[in-house]
Specification:
The complex is a heterodimer.
Chain A lengths: L1 H18 L14 H12 L3 H16 L7 H17 L7 H27 L4 H38 L1
Helix pairs in contact in A: 1-3, 1-6, 2-3, 2-4, 2-6, 3-4, 4-5, 5-6
Chain B lengths: L1 H6 L1 H22 L6 H33 L3 H28 L13 E2 L2 E9 L7 E4 L12 E4 L2 E9 L4 E5 L6 E6 L5 E6 L5 E7 L9 E4 L11 E10 L5 E8 L8 E5 L4 E2 H10 L1
Classes of the chains: A mainly alpha, B alpha+beta.
Chain lengths: 165, 285
């Protein structure tokens, strides 16, 4: 229960930072996606039903503060969680480099997932050219913010474990 | 059976949530005006935090820029920008009036441009997604803000209110792919729709092939959509597109407002008009 409380605080902090400070550090049209890194962290460490619900909630939170259709990011984040969960339960994903690679691919999956849904449900022009232009740089930016985010989340987890003991 | 469910519970739960997300998307894309109360609650809950951080960032940035880094230069830059904005607005108004009622030229020095209720607001957050272009302002239903109100700056149109909570409101920028504004080319009076796009900028679409639009042409609001007063600057044409298959064409518009940098906006109540437009119509009667 405490770990989900900490996750809720982390998600709220991430979304506030992302909509205020992080937006000023855009690289081209890509901005660091802190909530995606949080979602990957969930996929790596929360192999529970609660983890799936938390990933959905993180996506829903992003939908709430964004102008996009409700459910777009909820879908993308749940998909990312599921894929990371399946990957980490079959492959060894325990060092920093492999985690950064997971974040990179998770960003690719998220961008493609959202663009696919936009193309299907919202019939917007230029979806795939936009996706092609942004895919790589968005994934690189997400991968770049992964190490400090993982460090903060891991230290918070260690502190909770120490308190519990 | 129960063993299967127990072993695959994470997979099954995630699949159910994916399906539920699709239902949510389908529902919200069919009725984009409807926003569930939980989303509105989250917008309200985060608004004070976002406002606080934006204020701190602005204060720290101001101290750094104004006193530590370039003393005096920032202030001069701001004054020059304000002057440029005032001159651009004045130029649009002059062109509008010359074309219709030259005798109203003497009224261009009016400092108050709008007749009607207006609300000043501060931008407290921007859209976290790179392909959606909205921003959050620190005024909501408590202050009298309503859905579909026009949002402008001295340089021109910014967008319109798309969602209102008690403490904050979301502005759909004119460059968002969901935005559509009734517009006309100032020089030729050709009418079209200024629509946002997934990429940067926006487009004026649905111009008849016979009607002319050229690079550098100014695009302004028509006032016919009941949201924006007539004659507000939207932007200027930077690329003209000819479509071969139909009888319509359009152009890429560079917005007159630097939407990424805007910090304060003016929200206009329904029915607000430019003073110049009111005088023009009174002069015609």
């Amino acid at each position: 229960m405490r770990s989900f409380g900490a996750l809720a605080v982390a998600a709220a902090a991430a979304v506030v930072l992302q909509t205020t400070l992080i937006n000023t550090f855009q690289l081209g049209s890509a901005a660091p996606d802190l909530l995606l890194v949080l979602c990957v962290y969930l996929g790596l460490h929360q192999h529970t039903v609660g983890g799936a619900f938390a990933a959905f909630a993180v996506g829903y939170l992003q939908d709430s503060v964004s102008g996009s259709a409700t459910g777009l990011n909820a879908f993308a984040m749940t998909l990312v969680f599921l894929l990371v969960y399946l990957t980490s339960s079959r492959l060894w994903v325990d060092n920093l480099l492999s985690r950064i690679a997971v974040v990179f691919f998770a960003s690719v999956v998220k961008t493609l997932g959202v663009m696919l849904l936009v193309a299907i449900f919202l019939s917007v022009d230029g979806v795939w050219s936009t996706a092609a232009r942004r895919l790589l740089v968005q994934a690189l930016v997400a991968a770049a913010v992964a190490p400090p985010m993982f460090a903060v989340l891991s230290s918070s987890r260690r502190m909770r474990s120490a308190d519990a003991n | 059976m129960s063993e299967f469910l127990r072993r695959n519970r994470v997979f099954l739960t995630s699949s159910a949530l994916l399906f539920f997300s699709l239902v949510l998307i389908s529902t919200s894309s069919r009725s984009p005006d409807r926003r569930d109360p939980l989303a509105r609650f989250l917008l309200d809950a985060l608004a004070p935090l976002q406002g606080g951080i934006t204020l701190v960032r602005g204060t720290v940035g101001h101290v750094w820029d104004g006193y530590v880094w370039l003393v005096g230069v920032q202030q001069e830059n701001r004054q020059l920008k304000e002057r440029i904005g005032a001159l651009e607005r004045e130029a649009v108004q002059v062109a509008e009036m010359q074309q219709s009622h030259a005798r109203l030229e003497k009224l261009l020095d009016l400092s108050e441009s709008f007749a009607g209720r207006s609300y000043g607001a501060r931008v407290i957050a921007r859209d976290p997604l790179p392909w959606a272009r909205t921003m959050t302002i620190d005024r909501g239903a408590r202050d009298g803000i309503e859905k579909n109100m026009a949002v402008v700056s001295p340089q021109g149109v910014i967008g319109q209110i798309s969602e209102v909570s008690w403490l904050a409101a979301r502005v759909l920028l004119l460059t968002d792919h969901n935005s559509a504004i009734d517009a006309l080319v100032q020089r030729t009076r050709a009418r079209g729709i200024a629509q946002g796009a997934l990429e940067e900028g926006c487009h004026i679409k649905y111009l008849r092939r016979a009607e002319d639009i050229a690079l550098g042409d100014r695009v302004v609001t028509t006032g016919l959509d009941g949201i924006f007063p007539k004659g507000l600057m939207i932007g200027e044409a930077v690329e003209v597109a000819r479509y071969s298959r139909d009888s319509l064409h359009g152009a890429v518009i560079r917005p007159s407002v630097e939407l990424d940098r805007i910090e304060e906006v003016l929200v206009l109540a329904p029915g607000t008009r430019l003073v110049s437009e009111i005088l023009e119509s009174e002069g015609g009667e």
